[in-house]
Design goal:
Largest interface: A-B, 93 and 93 residues
Distance between the termini of chain A: 17 Å
Structural class of chain A: mainly alpha
Number of helices of chain A: 27
Number of domains of chain A: 2
Oligomer: homodimer
Strand content of chain A: under 5%
Helix content of chain A: 55-70%
Shape of chain A: elongated
C-alpha cells in the first residue's frame, strides 16, 4: 500500500451546484427521452428540420426514397406468403374472440396499411393475436353473451379496440414506453405459455365438435366440461382435427430441422384450409357433425365509427378491456419487433412503435377491425420469406383485399375443426419450454416468476395470471431495491486493488480496518436495512477480532463507488451510521463518493460532520491514510484530525 | 498506465456454484432476517437458549433483572408527567374519533401495560394518536353515523382495532417490517403535516362551538361549512378556546427556548383542563353555549370481546380501516421509537415492535380500547422527563387507573373547547415546515413527494393523501430503478484510477477506448434503457472522434463494479450490446464483474461468447491490455485473441 501518493492527492470535491431548473430538465430528459430523439435535428437548417420531423413521425417517408425494385420483389414474395397465413389465422382468431370470422379478415386489411406508414420495424407483420383475442372473449363475454346479443358484442369489441389504440398512442406520446419494460422477459414467457395452453384447451371444443362448452378458461373447468360430455364427442370431427394437427406439427417440425422445408410450413395453414374445405365439399361432412364457417359477406371493411358504443352502459368494461388488451398487445408486438430488429441490427423506437400501434388500432376500430398487433408466427414467416420492408404488409393487405372482394364464398365449406388445428399448431410454438429451462438454469427467481404466471393463467384465468405476473415482477423490483448487497473488501496481494473477499478468497483483510462496499443507491426503501446490515458487519468484525486478540477494529471505510444516488432518508441513515460508529469509538471514512452523493452530503452538512479529510478518492488511499494513523498514533478524534492534516501536507 | 502487471494478473474467475437450496436459504435470510436475530443463540447451552428465547419475545425479562431503584425514581417522575398528558389527550383524541371520551382513557390503561412487557423501546409512551383517530372517524363515519348509532359505531371501532392489531402482529411475525420503510421520511413529513392541518381545521368546530359541521375533512368543505354558519358562532366558546390555545402555544414556545420551562409545557394540558373546568363550574358557562364533556362512567375497562362485530355487514369496512390505520399507526410509532433510540444509541427491532404493537392492540380491542401507538408528543415528554425504561408506561397506566377509579366525575365540567385547544396545540408541532425546507434544500424530488402528500390530505382526504404519497413513493422507486446512471470514465493523471469525467474534470479520456460505468444492477426494469443509453454513448463518442480525426474508437470497456446483480433480461441486453458493438467493428471488454454477475454470465454462455481473456479485474488492467493491442496490431477478432494470450504469457 506504499503506493499512496500523498503529494498530489486528488481530492473528492463537491461539484458546483447546478441551477434547479437545469438539473430538473436534464433528469426529465434522461427519464423520458433516453434515446435523445432530437439529436439528428441538431445543427440542421429549418427546411431540413421539417423533412426530418416528418420522417420522424411517418417513417415511410424516410425509407421510401431508397426503395429499390429488388426490395420490391422480395417484399411481394414475403407479402403473399404471410397473406396465406393471414387469412386462416384471421378467421381462426376472430372465432377465438367470439367475433364473426369476417372481422378477422377485415383486421388484416386496414391495420397493416396504417402500420406500413407509421411503423419503424421492417419485419413486423401486422395481424390479430391469439392472447388478446382470448382476453377480449373472456372479459367482454362476462358482460354480454356473444351468441344472444352478437351485435352489441361486436360493438363492444370495436369500442375496446378504440380504447386500446387510444391508450397505446397516449403511452407513446407521453413517452411512457418504459412501462412495457416492467413486464419482464420471464413474465412474458410464462404468461404467453399459459395463454397458449388455455387457447389450445379452448380448441378442444372445435376438435371434438362440442356444441355446449364452459365459458371459463381454466384447466379444471375445461377438463370437467369435456369429460362430462363424452357422449357428445363427434368422432368425424375429432379424426379430421387430429389429422390436420398432425400434418401441421409435422411441417413445423421439418421446417425447423431443414430450412428448405420453410415454404411447406408457411403454406401449410392455407393448404389445410383448401384440403379441409375440399374434403367437406366432396363428402358433405357438414351434414355429419362437422361444423363449417358458412356464409361470409363479400366486400371490403364497412365503416364502423357509428358502431363505437361510447354511450353504452358497458363503457367502463370496454375501457378496462381496452387498456389490458392494449398493454398485452403492445408488449407482444414490441418484443417481437425488437427481437427481429436485433437480428438485422437496426433500431426500433419503443415510443414510436406505440404511436404506430395506437394509430392502427384507432383506424381499425373505425373500419370494423378488432385489436391487432405484431404476432410472432406471422412476423417470423415474413422474416424467413425474405421480407425487406413494411411493403410486405401492404402486399399482404392487397392480397387480403382481393380475398375479401372475390374469394370469401370459397370459405363456405371450411370446417371449423381445421381452424382449431391451425390455432393449436400456432399456439404450441408459443409454449417456450426451452426458455423456461434456460431461466431455471440461469436465474431461479426468474423461473419462479415465469412458472407462477403460467400456473396463474392455466389454473386461474388470463387476468389472474396477468395480475400474478405483474405483482411478482413488482415484488421482485421491491426486493431488489429493498435488499441491496453489501460486502467486505480485502486487498488483492501485490496490487492496490480492493475486492470482495467472498469473490476473491485470496484477498486479505486489512488489520484494524473494516472496508464495506455498498452496492446500490441509498434511499428510503433500503436505508433502514443498510443501517442494520452495516451495524451487523461491524458487530461481526468486532466479535471476530475480540476472540483472536489481534489489533482491535479502529476504522470503518465505506466504499461508495456503487452508490449512484442518495435521498434524504439515505442521508439520515448515514448520519445514524456515523453516530453509531462514533459511539463504538471507531472512525468512519468514505471512499469514492459520486458527484450526486457528494452534492447532497454537502448540502445536508454531512461532509462537515465527517470532515472533508476523511473522504478519499479510492479505497487504497483511504486504507493508506488509516494505516498511517494506526501505526503512528492511537486514534482519538482530536489527534486523528491533526495527523491527517499533517499527512496531507507531507 | 504502465502499472499493468501482467505477470501475476489476478483473473476474474467464476465462483463455484452453490447448491440451489443453500443459495435460496441465504437470500431468504438476507431478505427477512437482515438483523440476524438468532446470532446471540449461537454456541449457547439449551437452557441458556430457552432464557434468551423468552427474553427475545418478552423483552421485559431481559432488562427487569438489571432494573435499579434509581431507574425507578426516574420512571415514576416521567410516568406521572406523561399521565398528566395522557388523560387530556386520551379524552381529546377519542372525541376526534367520534368515540365516547371514556374510551380514550381506557386506551391509556391496558395497551401501555402490554407494551411494557413486549416492547423494545425504552422511551416510547403508548397512547392514542391523532391521525389514526381522524382516519377511524372518516372511514367508519362513512358507513355508520356515530350520533345516530353510537353502539354499533363503537363496536366497529373496536373491531377495526382488533384487525389493526392482527395485521401489525402478522407483519411482525412474517418479518415483513420492511413494508413500513416504503413510506419514506418525506412522505411521512408531508402526510403528518397534512393530517395535522386537517385535525386543526376539524377543531374549529369545537372552538367556534358549532353543532352542525361537515363530515368531509378537506379544506374547502370545512371552510365552506364555517363561513356559511357565521351566525352560529359562539363567542364565549371562541374566546375561551383562543385563550387556552394562546396559553398552550406560549408554554410550548418557551419550553423550546429554555429547557427549564419543560415542566410547564408538560403540565400545561392538565392545567388547562383544570382551569377550564373550574371556570365553567364557577361561571356555569355550560348554560351559555360552552359544551362540556359531561358524565363519565367510573371504573376500569369493561371487557369487550363480545363487542367485536365479526358477523356484522360492515366487516369489510372494519378490515380495511384496521389495515390502513394499523399501518399508519405502525409507521408513526416505529419512526418515533427509532428516533429516540437513536439519541440514546440503542437498537430497536422493527419486527419485534410490530408484534408488540399488534399484541397491545389485540389486547386493547378486548378491553374497550381503540387503536394505540406511540405518539410523538407523549414520547418526547417521557424522554425529556427522564424516563429510563418502559416502567414509565406502567406508572402512567397506574395513574390512569386511579383516574378511572376515582377521578372521572371531575371531568364533568371540562369544556370541549379546551380539548380542541389541546389538540390544536399538539398538532401545530406536527406541521414540520423546517423539515420541508430542509427537503427542498437537499433533495427536490423528496420535497415534491412531501408537498404532494400534504396537499392530497388537505385538499382531498386523508386516504387520498395516503394513496398519493404511496403512489409517488413507488413511482420514485420505479424511476430510480428504471433509469440508472451511466457515465464515461477517464484516467486521473499520475494514478491508475479511473473516475467519471463529469465529476473529475481533470480526468483524461483514453484515446480509442470508451470506458462506461453502469451504476445499477441490470435487470428487466432497466435493461432496455441501458441498451439504448450505451448505444447512445457509443454514437456520441464515434461522432466526436469522426470530427476530430484522431484515432478512431476501437474498444468499449464496461466497468461493472456497480452492477450488483443481473437477471435474464439483463443478460440478453448484454448479449445485444455485444452484438451491436461487434457490428460496429469494435470490441467489448468487461472490467470487474461481481461474483453474482459472473455466475450468471457463465451459465448463460456469455463469458464464452465474449472470451474469458476480455474480462479484467480492474479498469486499469483492461485499459492496459487494450492499449497494448492498439499499438501493436490492428484489432480484428482472431489476431486480438492471440495477442491477448501472448500478453498473458509474457
Amino acid at each position: 500500500m506504499g503506493n499512496l501518493d500523498s503529494e498530489c492527492r486528488q481530492k473528492v470535491t463537491v461539484p458546483p451546484s447546478k441551477p434547479f431548473l437545469s438539473s430538473l430538465k436534464s433528469s426529465l430528459k434522461e427519464t423520458f427521452f433516453p434515446d435523445d430523439p432530437l439529436r439528428q435535428f441538431k445543427n440542421q437548417p429549418p427546411g431540413r428540420k421539417l423533412v426530418l420531423g416528418l420522417q420522424y413521425f411517418v417513417p415511410i417517408l424516410e425509407w421510401a426514397p431508397r426503395y429499390t425494385f429488388d426490395f420490391f420483389k422480395a417484399d411481394v414474395v414475403a407479402g403473399i406468403t404471410i397473406a396465406t397465413l393471414a387469412v386462416p389465422q384471421g378467421i381462426s382468431y376472430a372465432t377465438l374472440a367470439n367475433l364473426p370470422p369476417i372481422i378477422g379478415l377485415y383486421s388484416s386489411f386496414v391495420p397493416p396499411l396504417v402500420y406500413a406508414m407509421l411503423g419503424s420495424s421492417k419485419d413486423l407483420a401486422v395481424g390479430t393475436v391469439a392472447v388478446a383475442s382470448l382476453l377480449i372473449a373472456s372479459m367482454l363475454g362476462k358482460e354480454v353473451n356473444p351468441n344472444q346479443n352478437p351485435k352489441l358484442y361486436v360493438q363492444l369489441a370495436l369500442t375496446s379496440t378504440f380504447f386500446a389504440g387510444l391508450f397505446q398512442a397516449t403511452l407513446g406520446f407521453l413517452r411512457l414506453g418504459f412501462i412495457v419494460d416492467f413486464l419482464s422477459h420471464a413474465t412474458i414467457v410464462g404468461f404467453m405459455g399459459g395463454a397458449a395452453t388455455v387457447v389450445c384447451l379452448q380448441q378442444l371444443k372445435g376438435i371434438l365438435g362440442l356444441v355446449h362448452f364452459t365459458h371459463a378458461t381454466d384447466l379444471v373447468s375445461v377438463m370437467q366440461s369435456i369429460i362430462t360430455q363424452t357422449h357428445q364427442w363427434r368422432w368425424e370431427s375429432g379424426v379430421l382435427g387430429c389429422c390436420f394437427l398432425f400434418l401441421l406439427t409435422l411441417t413445423r417440425y421439418f421446417s425447423k430441422r431443414r430450412a428448405a422445408f420453410f415454404w411447406i410450413n408457411a403454406m401449410a395453414p392455407l393448404m389445410s384450409i383448401i384440403l379441409g374445405s375440399l374434403l367437406v365439399y366432396l363428402t358433405h361432412a357438414e351434414k355429419h357433425g362437422v361444423q363449417v364457417i358458412g356464409y361470409l359477406k363479400k366486400g371490403l371493411n364497412p365503416p364502423s365509427l357509428s358502431e363505437l358504443a361510447f354511450g353504452s352502459e358497458y363503457l367502463m368494461t370496454t375501457i378496462k378491456t381496452g387498456i389490458i388488451t392494449g398493454v398485452i398487445a403492445l408488449a407482444e408486438g414490441i418484443a417481437v419487433g425488437r427481437s427481429f430488429a436485433m437480428f438485422k441490427n437496426y433500431h426500433i423506437d419503443g415510443n414510436k412503435e406505440m404511436i404506430a400501434f395506437g394509430m392502427m388500432n384507432i383506424a381499425g376500430s373505425c373500419t370494423s377491425c378488432y385489436l391487432t398487433s405484431g404476432p410472432f408466427s406471422r412476423t417470423a414467416v415474413n422474416f424467413n420469406a425474405g421480407g425487406k420492408t413494411a411493403v410486405s404488409n401492404i402486399v399482404m393487405a392487397t392480397a387480403v383485399m382481393i380475398t375479401l372482394l372475390f374469394l370469401t364464398p370459397l370459405f363456405y365449406y371450411t370446417p371449423l375443426v381445421v381452424l382449431s388445428s391451425i390455432i393449436i399448431a400456432a399456439m404450441l410454438g408459443l409454449i417456450d419450454y426451452e426458455a423456461a429451462i434456460h431461466l431455471w438454469k440461469v436465474d431461479k427467481f426468474d423461473f419462479v416468476v415465469c412458472i407462477s404466471s403460467y400456473l396463474g393463467v392455466v389454473f386461474g384465468s388470463v387476468e389472474i395470471g396477468l395480475v400474478i405476473a405483474v405483482v411478482i415482477s413488482l415484488l421482485r423490483v421491491v426486493i431488489f431495491v429493498a435488499r441491496p448487497r453489501t460486502c467486505v473488501l480485502g486487498n488483492i496481494p501485490k496490487t492496490i486493488t480492493y475486492r470482495s473477499i467472498d469473490q476473491y478468497p485470496l484477498a486479505n483483510r486489512v488489520a484494524g480496518i473494516l472496508i464495506l462496499q455498498i452496492d446500490a443507491p441509498i434511499y428510503f426503501a433500503n436505508a433502514n436495512y443498510l443501517r442494520e446490515r452495516i451495524s451487523r458487519w461491524i458487530d461481526d468484525e468486532e466479535d471476530k477480532l475480540k476472540s483472536s486478540e489481534k489489533i482491535g477494529l479502529q476504522y470503518v471505510i465505506l466504499d461508495m463507488s456503487a452508490v449512484g444516488s442518495i435521498d434524504t432518508s439515505g442521508i439520515s441513515v448515514l448520519e445514524e451510521v456515523k453516530r453509531n460508529i462514533d459511539t463504538r469509538g471507531l472512525k468512519l471514512v468514505l471512499a469514492n463518493p459520486r458527484s450526486e452523493v457528494m452534492k447532497k452530503l454537502d448540502k445536508s452538512k454531512f461532509i462537515e460532520a465527517i470532515g472533508q479529510e476523511w473522504i478519499y478518492l479510492t479505497v487504497a488511499e483511504a486504507v493508506g491514510a488509516c494505516n498511517f494513523m494506526l501505526h503512528s498514533c492511537k486514534p482519538n478524534s482530536k489527534a486523528v484530525d491533526e495527523s491527517t492534516e499533517n499527512d496531507n501536507n507531507v
